[in-house]
Amino acid sequence: MSDATPEGSGTVIPQIRIMRRSGLEQRATFFELFFDLVYVFAVTQLSHHLLASHLTWTGAAETAFMLLAVYWAWNYTTWMANWFDPETAPVRLVLTFVMLASLLMAVAIPEGFGDLALLFACSYAALQIGRNLFVVIVTPPGTFNRNFRHILAWSVASAPLWVAGGLIDDARWPLWLVALALDLSGPLAQYWVPGDGSAPMSQWAIDGHHFAERFQLFVIIALGESIVLTGVTASGTEMSLEIGLALGVSFLGSVALWWLYFSGASPVIAHRLGHSSSEDVGALGRDIYTYLHVPIVAGIVLMAVGDELVVAHPGDAMETTGALAVLGGPALFLLGLLACSLRVRHRAGWPAVAAVVVLLAGVPVMAGRSGLATATFSLVVLGTLAVLEVRRTPREPVGETTTGAAP
């Protein structure tokens, strides 16, 4: 077993037993799919937290904050698993630890800014530090190890702020905002450490196919949670024609989002990522998936909350906050897709821009109208856009692979 990168290989990734084999197209493993189950629960908890707050601005801010933390924990683990083989025992063990910490973090979400704030903060900090410490310990000295030492240093730097925020009620928001800002800015700052420099994104070679697939699966998690939430809501009511129509409209709305992502933006993004040089692929992966997928996931979660309101009370007049959830969720989703398209230099079509404008303009118009009417309006906009986008999006040649490295 070699503990160093082969001479002249052109990569900083060490070729040791627990790493994925370089030069082979990687796919998501069964253990990675098992790992994602914890985050299905976490996304459900986030939706319930926003619903329990009765769509107040405070509840929305808390949910958005915890969504960022949950996504960041999953995102960092996905980057790590892009290089490390989950089929090996040591990697499975560390991912199991991350799963347990993530489960505790998800359990704390309903009281994440209340009685369980310390559990939420400690779980998040522990999984971030524990995962990065594992990489530093098991990899040999070299550029890859140095890069993860930098990531570990940033995680350790933010941890006291997370814990302090969990302990001090009055200072929770400012402490946690600083802690999260520190974590979010790490990739942009290239994990600069005083006296040791930065970790350039050109050193973060990734497997484009595996990376795109993992984030596609997270989008499916969010969409699946939306369907589950509306299904559970409908099963808890006395079914009527109106509720059945609301359930159908909400379901078709989720299908439209799936269609727009998987038949439109996602193949273009994956193709661009897979055919980028090793100098560019790290920065592209960081920008598109680490940052620009946040509004995509947030939009799905917000739409799920709106769909629950519609299915529970399809004939009731929508308040402004409810209309904002039903229409603002898809608009946020589309803004994320537009941002990703711009980042890969794919021409954004005017229909998507127009759809965002129509959805947002519809919020004050649909406020006061029934939930079913509001959801139907959203479905018409999304369905029309899906048809137009599929017609304008070129199909990539069959058989092309996405390796995430220069030929």
Q: Please, could you describe this protein's structure?
A:
By secondary structure, the chain is mainly alpha-helical. The protein folds into 2 domains: 30-199, no CATH class; 208-392, I/LWEQ domain. The chain is built from 13 helices and no strands. The protein has helices at residues 30-52, 57-83, 89-108, 117-138, 143-167, 172-185, 208-235, 241-274, 281-291, 294-312, 320-343, 350-366, 371-392. Helix 4 packs antiparallel against helix 5 (143-167), helix 7 runs antiparallel to helix 8 (241-274) and helix 7 (208-235) runs parallel beside helix 10. Residues 1-10 and 396-407 have low confidence and may be disordered. Pfam families: LtrA (PF06772). The chain crosses the membrane at residues 57-77, 89-110, 116-139, 151-168, 174-194, 215-237, 243-262, 288-306, 321-341, 348-366, 372-390. Keywords: Membrane, Transmembrane, Transmembrane helix.
